[in-house]
């Protein structure tokens, strides 16, 4: 089985539209956007990656969160338009979950602007998708709105829901999808304002009910740690191939990972195999 795994496209729109005197976070987000995002997430790059993915022959395509930058309706609309060809090709085999940037404000979360733009990928805690054979995708959403922080929250409700779900699927090969890392490589520092709160509880569930693979993003660097794969960003520009816009290609067989490859965009928009992933 071949999985294409990508995430963290961070579609953005005109920062002036963000200005809202009643929402200081939006304003700070706008300043941040003006300073960084235009350069860091050039619009053409995410589209290049999506065009390459569309040409891939894959059994499953997974986007592990952060469609937008500030959960603006215009950003969700832009992302939904970009993803339409992928949905038309893979239908229910295209799995999407939101990231913290898609739950950026309480208003966007409460009114579910994510679910409005991606009705085929709505999620309320945990979502299970049956695949052919004995495989199943279990996606969970630990993203929520924080003022000025980028944490996620794996609270007791979500913990119980995920544990209950996985306990009922012990005879299946589970592909687990979340937004946040469970573990970090030694070379990557854990930022307390950026990590998943309740990470230890998630880790213990994953130990108890080990999935074939855990697919996540959030930290914009591609890596593989055991059965966990971070796809990195598909929209960020970087000189470092592990951070440069791209995706991961994962192959499974007999309930195990047989290979994980990274792909990133070359200077001319061509696919380049990323060295040093696994
Ligand atoms: Fe991100
Ligand atoms: Fe994130």
Task: Note the topology.
Blueprint (H helix, E strand, L loop, with lengths): L1 E5 L17 H17 L2 H13 L4 E4 L9 H18 L3 E3 L9 H5 L2 H5 L8 E5 L4 E6 L11 E2 L2 H12 L5 E5 L18 E2 L1 H10 L4 E4 L5 E4 L2 E4 L14 E8 L2 E10 L5 E4 L4
Parallel strand pairs: 1-2, 2-3, 5-7, 6-8, 7-9, 9-11
Antiparallel strand pairs: 1-12, 4-5, 10-11, 12-13, 13-14
Helix pairs in contact: 2-3
The structure holds fe (ii) ion (2 copies).
The site of one fe (ii) ion has 7 residues, from loops.
How does this model look, in words?
The structure is a single chain. Helix 2 runs parallel beside helix 3. The protein has a six-stranded mixed beta sheet. The radius of gyration is 17 Å and the shape is globular. The chain has a single domain, classed as 4-Layer Sandwich (Purple Acid Phosphatase, chain A, domain 2), CATH 3.60.21. It has helices at 24-40, 43-55, 73-90, 106-110, 113-117, 156-167, 199-208, and strands spanning 2-6, 60-63, 94-96, 126-130, 135-140, 152-153, 173-177, 196-197, 213-216, 222-225, 228-231, 246-253, 256-265, 271-274. Helices cover 29% and strands 24% of the residues. It has 278 residues and is an alpha/beta fold. It contains seven helices and 14 strands. It starts with a strand and ends with a strand.
